[in-house]
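pipeline stage [seq->struct] | target=EF-hand domain-containing protein | organism=Alexandrium andersonii | residues=203
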Amino acid sequence: KRSAKTVSLKEFHAFIHALRYYIELAEIFETLDNKQEDDQRLSLRECRKGLADLEVWGVTEEKLADKFRGVDPWTPLIAFQDFAEWCVEERWSVMHLSMDLDSSDEEAQFADAGAALRGVAGIDKEDKKYGQECLSNIKKVTEIFKRADADRSGVISEDELVAVFCGLNSKITPEAARKLFVLADANKDGQVDYEEFCLWLFR
């Protein structure tokens, strides 16, 4: 029986993932923030400098324009907390997972989940055409694989995959995530290695 002060492995994995995202966003924020101004707020001009990094989080030029509509490009506006919440919201909004637990079409669910992972990794339709051997795609896939591999074992366990999907979309149940794990584990050894992960994303 767990005491009120303990956390489950799933909860711990979810915390680790959240911490990684926080650190990544903090690094992006510090890079974009003009050190000479040292105001700890970002202007439109500063955000545009790091658009490539922001696009990974679902923030496009159009969304930047909407966010700063009516504000002078040089005016510092967004503090870190608002910046982090905005980026996370935009990143997960690109995920359109429809996990119908009553559906018998598990292959369709698996394909949808793979598409969602590509979205999180920043792999668009054009990138997908070049496959997993493309250097740019290798970097993106490796990054998201490492995030999922919370214990750095070199493979993704069932608990780790469940933590990833339940953390990304609150509508996904652990049962639905476990279905995905079974499908991703092609050789049925109880874990998803890098090659199986790539096959999933580029199927």
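stage status: PASS
auto-comment: Confidence is low (pLDDT under 50) at residues 95-103. The two ends are 42 Å apart (CA to CA).
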